[in-house]
Design a protein that fits this description.
binds zinc ion; 4 helices; 33% strand; 203 residues; Fumarylacetoacetate hydrolase, domain 2; 4-stranded antiparallel beta sheet; alpha+beta
Length: 203
């Protein structure tokens, strides 16, 4: 399986990092070894001094597809969860300045903790879904999927022109504003609506 992640999909987040608002989705990938499940801790890596959290809604692909049209894209996922797109912001800044790829800052081991997945049909409308992150019991990030620049269906249509989507693939759909540093001993809790989906420690 693979993880596809969308960059700059919320205007307020693009602005907070002084990035232009994209005209087309920007995507990058994380390998399977980036996943952390079951609320296992994230071990702060020694190659970075500035690991940021980015809280994102994640959809799980349940059909094989290529060149999927936006109209039919909603038939290619039926589960939704939440994840943290951990980013080594110092390494990313360096890569950006040199025009280099982002993998070093985005694809490292443990950089993609994910929750359990919930059936899409359990929600009234996943295009109007509140989600949030608390660190040490303080609300640090909140978003709503209605503010995405590119909807789930638009993302699937766009990405599948380039990359075949396979059963079990995950798509991280971008972070709202409020990204920031994590520190050793931080306690992270991620929510979709009022339901706590993740609860883990930075070690
Ligand atoms: Zn992200």
């Amino acid at each position: 399986m693979k993880i596809i992640a969308i960059g700059r999909n919320y205007i307020d987040h693009a602005k907070e990092l002084n990035n232009p608002v994209p005209e087309k989705p920007i995507f990058f990938m994380k390998p399977e070894t980036s996943i952390i499940r079951n609320n296992k801790p994230f071990f702060y890596p020694d190659f970075s001094e500035n690991i940021h959290y980015e809280t994102e809604i994640v959809i799980k692909i349940n059909r094989l597809g290529k060149h999927i049209t936006e109209k039919f894209a909603n038939q290619y996922y039926n589960e939704v969860g939440i994840g943290i797109d951990f980013t080594a912001r110092d390494l990313q800044k360096d890569a950006k300045e040199k025009g280099l790829p982002w993998e070093i800052a985005k694809a490292f081991d443990g950089s993609a903790p994910i929750s359990e997945f919930v059936l899409v049909k359990k929600f009234e409308n996943i295009n109007n879904l509140n989600f949030s992150l608390k660190i040490k019991n303080e609300l640090v990030q909140q978003g709503n999927t209605r503010d995405m620049i590119f909807s789930f269906d638009k993302i699937i249509a766009y990405v599948s022109q380039f990359v075949t989507l396979k059963i079990g693939d995950l798509i991280f759909t971008g972070t709202p504003a409020g990204v920031g540093k994590v520190h050793i001993n931080d306690h992270l809790e991620a929510f979709i609506e009022d339901k706590k989906m993740m609860d883990f420690l930075i070690k």
